[in-house]
Design goal:
The complex is a heterodimer of chains A (493) and B (148). Chain A contains 22 helices and two strands. Chain A is mostly helical and 493 residues long. Chain A has one domain. A two-stranded antiparallel ribbon of chain A has the order 1-2. In chain A, α5 packs antiparallel against α6, α7 runs antiparallel to α20 and α11 runs parallel beside α13. Chain B has two domains: 65 residues; 64 residues, no CATH class. Chain B has 148 residues and is an all-alpha fold. Classes of the chains: A mainly alpha (493), B mainly alpha (148). The interface between A and B is large, with 63 and 63 residues.
Chain lengths: 493, 148
């Protein structure tokens, strides 16, 4: 099928009213949770997951994806107006967005964030289509050894790129993989680390883990923090219009941000948060007057905002073409697909063209919708920031309980979420990354299965990971990723 | 400034957990060989890895100072407690009762005095839950207290 035929078919799916309505609903809900600090895309998607049992697979995926990229738009609002990141991906936007708001240029900052997000998403869609076709062809030659090496590389990249302390990051990944071992071992049927609990036979519930680590831990941390800010500045439509000088400063950062975001989004392990930080660092490095950064440099918003949006689109590449989720949110998407009996992989484009192309086109429609709607709606989003967090979080807690309970009707899972939430908060206070734990949890079982298969094929010869050229490439990249921070450390001593 | 207790404590916990996982796996599961990995192979390897990483995190923390980071004890207890109550009471009190109690307990740790707003919030959230989950989604869940 050519790209054009695919897009035509996708248009057919995405414009179907029963799909379109979910895409618009998801985009709006995503923006809302993005705007509100303390609730992110992760929590919203986990809460929506049980609802997706009742709707068609296309509608489900389109809605969840829309929540994800909608949140990227909304996240910037709180970052700019309150210096309180609405989502982790927009944390870096506070650095220059808030100073701009202080200088009375909040409107321009918001406009920059919106237009950069839109441009990043649209270019990201083009790159997604190109990469997905190419990777699907390539992936047919992937064996167990390649899958293993690639996933290990993804985990190592996530721990070493853009994190301050690789040892703490790696510890979270390993802890996640260990938690992934809990339950019945698929290869031998042995029950591992279940301690006789029947509820643990299927392993730790992904929804429970995600809600505890993200939903609850963030609520606990934000109860006090979110009350400590003044009212946001009023923003009128007229203030959104940038000056000619501003516009001139947008093109290059958006292009660089999009390319960077597309690359790191498509790489399993690294995702939109890391891309936004890297893009900010890049913009400061290439700028002729880097001292403007931190004092309201418009490039400091344009780069990261385009990077995190393009990354959230290209993150679908490994998820759909290899069946490997690159970040925890993609793991939930994969879960939603599997619930509907679709196993993503190299054959996805051939076997489920409706799903793939429908999703691609819905990205375009959703982003266009967000751009058109968000500019006039900006006043409403800003007024949302006036809702105090103390009115929201008790409701969030009840929704978390019901969301977890609804998966299989077990109160055991609610108690488990409570425990995970407490541990998650304690880890977050000590600056451990819960996202990496979840990533290890999701990829761990896949790595174990593929590694066993690879070594079974090679009759126990570990050289299989080096003899096969593509696998060898991944191994070399992994070693480099581990060596670079180590060498840097020794040099600074 | 204070000694980096968080890294010290968590490094220690992770190292011990790693050793525990490895030891438990060695004792209970077949390790197998490279050619045919047993169910114990992966956990043993991971446990040792976690023990090593935990040590790397904890040891340098001895001599290092860091900014004091406050642990929000009351908020943690309030939020976690409200969840536990929901989980324990759901099958006895039903959805309405446990929702109301959860909201009251959770909102008790909010940094704002006053009873009235808490009661209003409780009524609003409970009503919202009824509309969304009972009327809207028709969720199969005990709604009112169950007789014994």
């Amino acid at each position: 099928m050519t790209t054009l035929e695919g897009l035509a078919q996708g248009l057919n799916v995405a414009l179907d009213p029963s799909v379109l309505i979910y895409s618009l609903f998801g985009a709006l809900l995503g923006t809302l949770v993005g705007v509100l600090p303390g609730i992110g895309a992760m929590a919203a998607i986990t809460l929506l997951l049980p609802i997706t049992y009742y709707i068609s697979s296309q509608a489900a995926l389109v809605m969840l994806a829309a929540v994800y990229y909608g949140a990227q738009y909304g996240g910037a609002v709180a970052s700019i107006l309150l210096r309180l990141p609405g989502t982790p991906q927009s944390a870096v936007t506070t650095l220059d967005g808030y100073p701009m708001a202080q200088q009375g240029r909040a409107g321009v900052a918001l406009f920059t964030a919106m237009i950069s997000s839109f441009a990043g998403s649209m270019l990201g869609i083009v790159i997604l289509v190109m990469l997905a076709g190419w990777l699907s062809d390539l992936a047919t030659s992937f064996g167990a050894a390649e899958y293993t090496a690639m996933m290990v590389m993804g985990l190592v990249a996530a721990s070493t790129v853009g994190t301050g302390r690789p040892a703490k990051a790696l510890a979270m990944v390993v802890l996640g993989v260990i938690l992934g071992c809990v339950g019945t071992d698929v290869n031998s049927g042995v029950q591992r680390f279940t301690f006789g609990q029947v509820q643990l036979l299927d392993g730790i519930n992904l929804v429970a883990l995600a809600m505890g680590l993200f939903g609850l831990a963030e609520v606990i941390g934000n109860i006090r923090k979110a009350e400590r800010h003044g009212p946001p500045a009023k923003v009128s439509l007229r203030q959104l219009i940038p000056t000619r000088d501003d516009v001139r400063h947008l093109f290059a950062p958006i292009t660089r941000g999009t390319l960077l975001g597309s690359f790191f989004g498509a790489l399993p392990g690294t995702g939109s948060t890391i891309s936004s930080f890297l893009s900010y660092a890049l913009e400061r490095k290439v700028s002729r007057n880097p001292e403007r950064f931190g004092h309201g440099a418009i490039e400091g918003i344009a780069g990261p905002e385009s990077a995190n949006n393009s990354a959230s689109i290209t993150a679908f590449v490994p998820t759909l073409t290899l069946g490997i989720p690159g970040d925890p949110i993609m793991a939930l998407m994969l879960g939603a697909l599997v619930i509907h009996g679709i196993q993503p992989g190299p054959m996805m484009l051939q076997d489920h063209p409706n799903m793939f192309w429908g999703l691609v086109v819905s990205f375009g429609i959703g982003n266009l919708f967000l751009l058109i709607l968000n500019l006039p709606l900006i006043g409403i989003w800003v007024s949302m920031l006036r809702i105090p967090f103390r009115w929201l979080y008790p409701a969030i807690i009840v929704f978390v309980c019901l969301g977890v309970y609804s998966v299989r009707g077990a109160t055991f899972d609610i108690v488990m979420v409570a425990g995970i939430g407490a541990i998650g908060y304690a880890l977050a206070v000590a600056a451990f990354s819960p996202a990496l734990l979840l990533l290890g949890f999701v990829l761990g079982p896949l790595i174990e299965t593929n590694m066993r298969r690879a070594l079974l094929i090679s009759r126990g010869d570990a050289m299989i990971f080096i003899e096969r050229p593509i696998a060898c490439g991944f191994v070399i990249a992994t070693v480099l990723l581990l060596a670079v921070p180590l060498v840097k450390r020794i040099r600074t001593r | 400034m204070q000694r980096d207790y968080y890294d010290l404590i968590w490094g220690g916990i992770l190292a011990l957990l790693g050793l525990g996982v490895a030891a438990y796996a060695v004792a209970h599961y077949d390790f197998g060989s490279l050619r045919r990995m047993g169910p114990g192979f992966f956990p043993v390897l991971l446990g040792i890895g976690l023990a090593g990483l935990g040590t790397i995190i904890a040891v340098p923390a001895f001599g290092r100072t860091t900014e004091a980071r406050a642990f929000a004890w009351p908020e943690t207890i309030g939020v976690i407690g409200s969840l536990l109550l929901f989980g324990l009471l759901l099958n006895r009190l039903g959805l309405m009762g446990s929702t109301a109690i959860t909201v009251l307990v959770a909102s008790s740790v909010a940094p704002r005095k006053g009873i009235l707003w808490r009661l209003v919030l409780t009524v609003v959230v409970t009503a919202l839950v009824w509309v969304l989950f009972v009327l809207g989604l028709d969720m199969s869940i005990p709604v009112w207290p169950q007789g014994y």
